[in-house]
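Why this split exists: single-chain examples teach little about how molecules sit against one another. For that reason, every record in the complexes split bundles all components of an assembly together and asks for one structure covering all of them. Below is a record exactly as it appears in the raw files.
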Amino acid sequence: MQPTTNTSVISLPSDSVKQESASAPAGFSCPLPLPAGGRVLLGHGSGGKLSSELLQEVFLAALGNPVLDRMEDQAVLSLNGMRLAMTTDSFVVKPLFFRGGDIGSLAVHGTINDLAMGAARPLWMSVAFILEEGLQFDVLRRVVASMQAAADKAGVQIVTGDTKVVEKGSADGLYINTTGIGLVRDGISLSASQAQPGDAIIVSGMLGDHGIAILAEREGLKFETEVQSDSAALHELVGALLEATSEVRCLRDPTRGGLSSTLNEIAGSSQVGMELEETAIPVREEVRGACEMLGLDPLYVANEGKLVAIVAADAAEQALAALRSHPLGAEAQIIGRVTEAHPRMVVMRTAFGTTRIVDMLAGDQLPRIC
Amino acid sequence: MKYMDEYRDAKIARGLAAEIRRRSTRPWVLMEICGGQTHTLMRYGIDELLGNSVELVHGPGCPVCVTPLEMIDRANALARRPEVTLVSYGDMLRVPGSETDLFHIKAEGGDVRIVYSPTDAVELARKEPHRQVVLFAIGFETTAPAHAMAVLQAERLELTNFSLLVSHVLVPPAIRMLLQSPRNRVQGFIAPGHVCTVVGVGEYEELSREFHVPIVVGGFEPVDLLDAIRLLVCQLEEGRAEVENSYARSVQYAGNRAAQAAVEQVFEVADRKWRGVGEIGASGLRLKEKYAAFDAERVFGLAEVCAEEPSECIAAEVLLGHKKPTDCPAFGTRCTPETPLGAPMVSTEGACAAYHQYKRHLVTL
């Protein structure tokens, strides 16, 4: 968003209709994001425009440095000729247990995936718990067992940790933070700033499963669905892809904010446009149905086991075949291409042959009222 | 949910669009009333399919958008009271009042909760008898029956901690005002299918006769809307002006009698302000005297909360179809969905927000 200081006044043509008023409240015509004295809103955690404003104007403004400023999902750090990847992520999902996963496995998968998107092999992980007074040991044991199973399966060791307990009411059951360290594959450097006109845009499978599985269990919204969270560790899928071709420019996992936020971020970082084919985007029938009912767009719904790959055009088919050869990428699709036209904008060619923008969300996607 | 697919079928849609282009001898000016319809037209690019065979202008039918500024301010004032739990539909939370919105009040500690159905609000009041639960009851004829049912249910449960902040508006008075305007350009209307499902088509027949204007009741999927546009163009080309129903899978002639009865029992017609438009006589609903105990404005004495709208916004021109959102100098620059200057940029169903969300790439800012 472009904050502006232009405050020219446009006169309102008169009409037979009675106008309500004339004067603008002070400050209304020139709103700036994150005003001094403002407060954090839920939308600042949505992964959309508000999140990116918070990042730019609070965190990067104070903490910025060349590594952080790259704004990738992981930091890549050079040490004695090695390139280490490091990432951290906090998990506050509600409910703690859902169809297809739980907060424990999610906390392991999420951090592994942020490493994998930087072409890193995940090696070690830390885990920090914030527990609410009164949490049942049974619940905690189930979560911890699930973490261990997920880490074992992925070949990652949990090597350090921390526990804090806060008063009842100060947390919602439990929160988890995980930090991961991995080793970046030799000769590969992925970045959201490397997309080039002509590149293919590939997704590794069906979109929106995780978000719908979570919403289906939310208080006041419960509905029956067969949809399961897609929560999974993607490092092996990434391995298969990177072994098949060296022409991958960028990998991202479209979590919060969904595919649209991820593609808008890449388009912004690379100063390119994107054109998607609506009919090529894989969305499960049940997810489409649930989105229909809730007034949501599956392109904005979170995934926890999918990746987006930007790949040079001549390697696209090879990349697609490599993804499809792995169970987690069996339903991969080429969904569009990177363009020189309309930089920083993601445009979709609809099933009708018309076009529309696929925008980043301002805040949380909210159900419509009628 | 597969049943929707035939109403989104690209081949059927293109066929209808071709027929409209063939039949149309000049660019007829048509207005879809409902914001949901506007959203579909933009999302599927129906305007692109039709070329210049018709000009689509976008009506005032977004309930979030037309809720007047002072009602938002009243909701905000209520949400700040320590004893009140303000219950709202999600979209209303980010609508800016004079100073702030409900999201910010929530962040400051106000008890603001999102519900998906008015019944949930009644249930909340029953479960939390020490809280004053106020439901922000906005919308057109579509949401009025559910709000009426909520009041009747609260009465049955003898709840003394449940009330409605009512901001209900009605579609036909807005169409009438539009048609009476000397600057009106609209030659045919797509009437809102969901509203007609509740109230039937009788009132629209009166309008059609009085102003000799074709009105077609339309649905919300692209094929529904193209069919409604086709019927309007046929009427206009043949010089007819009548009411036709292109949404018969939902709309019956007399509407839903049970829903109408509930509304009549609880509400009465009243003058209402429309955000961006101004006051329209007999264009809304308020709670009857008998249900004053459920009227938050009376329970909490909110009449003194008044507000004035910013002058830069051309919402009135847009909501009445005189101008397109992109005609506004503030569009996409000083006015965006994150920092809306006025009503139609606020909700995803507002005309300006729909243009901003789906059509920005075709506009030179």
